[in-house]
Amino acid sequence: MSLLKVISRRTFLQAKNVLPSLACGMRNVSDSTNLKDVMADLVPIKQKEVQAFRKSHGTKVIGEVMVDQLYGGMRGIKGLVTETSVLDAEEGIRFRGHTIPDCQEKLPKAPGGSEPLPEGLFWLLMTGELPTQQQTDAVSKEWAARGAVPSHVAQMLNNFPSSLHPMSQFSAAITAMNSDSKFAQAYTDGVNKASYWEYAYEDAMDLCAKLTTVAATIYRNLYREGTSVCPIDVNLDWSGNFAAMLGYDDEMFKELMRLYLTIHSDHEGGNVSAHTVHLVGSALSDPYLSLAAGMNGLAGPLHGLANQEVLVWITKLQEQLGGEVSDAQLKEFIWNTLQSGQVVPGYGHAVLRKTDPRYTCQRQFALEHLPDDPLFKLVSQIYKVVPDTLLEHGKAKNPWPNVDAHSGVLLQYYGMTEMNYYTVLFGVSRALGTLSSLVWDRALGLPLERPKSMSTEGLMKLTGAK
């Protein structure tokens, strides 16, 4: 689509005062296969919508804050705008209004595949529109074309000691790639802030394209004796290429990667990785620096590292109880874990109050493709026993499993047994949501984030306690 056509279509849409909400999903705005052209149509529409909304309702009070929330990790405080997804405590995640089952059904698939392509989800997160197969394939080809990693980054990765954690390597490589940041260069050149989103978009596209190459290089260096990553196949989708670069040719592993990279992509804006990318980006740090900061948050054991923690706990369980265990033995082991002051990893969530839909779709994948796997059977038994035990213990508001309770089992089945690496996979996926959200942060001109903090003494005076 030419620039003249984009401008003409934009003028037409604005003249008709078309202001549908992206949060609810937009339809039929453009049939172009060029994602940036579609974004050029959508950005001015959303800008006008937000401007009109703030003018009419900007002073409306939407909630209150309790002292306990300040000490409790700001849980439940409404304080962020994130367009890409919303998490409901009872229903789970919706990507631009679409549930995970919706996405599994409606997003384009790879030839012969049944799981959604993450490229299609990225289009949905960016635009609010469900993409066509042609639009999704166009993103696949564009990412394949952008996938080369700068030579100095490749050299740095190859020089890292094997003792350096994969997430540390991943974060460092992302930071180093900011030598190629189009946003940073445009800012240095004094570009008008109305165009910030375009350069953030270019960096986001480059990052999504290169992250799989970076991640695969780390994997090969650490676990495959430094063997070379195979070249990117321009005719293969993003997940298929990633699996090949990792060294896996099983078609079901490729399908697992498509599902995994889709469902881990976004979980609204308040989680550590998403909020960190937004926060650092609000300082107009480029998308490379912003994403690297988010990845450092994802590396924490209470966030993305939790999938590794689950397998460590299950391994400990197997070592102590042996092969097949009874429900009574399993309950005793769980109870002892809780009584020792530890948690059962993979169970509970800061927001959700039901079984995580991301757990459910992985369980369905396992039931279809590996129903007799011993580790899957154990995870199913844990699913049967843990919730009631947690409720009996009395401290769990949500006794149900989250996404981390299942992903490691699937990866182990297909031969990826290196638990330290799992969070890198999570990071590749989470980039889709955080970067698409960051592009919209710049499109909407969201300012430097700077909430007011208070001391305990100040809170005591404010509440009349002192």
Can you walk me through this structure?
The chain is an all-alpha fold. The chain has one domain (20-56, 78-466): Citrate Synthase, domain 1 (Orthogonal Bundle). The protein contains 21 helices and two strands. It has a two-stranded antiparallel ribbon with strand order 1-2. A hairpin with a 3-residue loop joins β1 (85-88) and β2. α5 (118-127) runs parallel beside α20, α8 (166-176) runs antiparallel to α14 and α12 (251-263) packs antiparallel against α17 (357-369). The longest helix has 28 residues, at 196-223. It is globular, with a radius of gyration of 23 Å. The model is unreliable at 1-29 (pLDDT under 50).
Structural topology:
Elements: H1 3-15, H2 35-57, H3 67-71, E1 85-88, E2 92-95, H4 100-106, H5 118-127, H6 133-145, H7 151-159, H8 166-176, H9 182-188, H10 196-223, H11 238-246, H12 251-263, H13 272-282, H14 287-298, H15 306-321, H16 327-339, H17 357-369, H18 374-393, H19 404-413, H20 422-443, H21 456-463
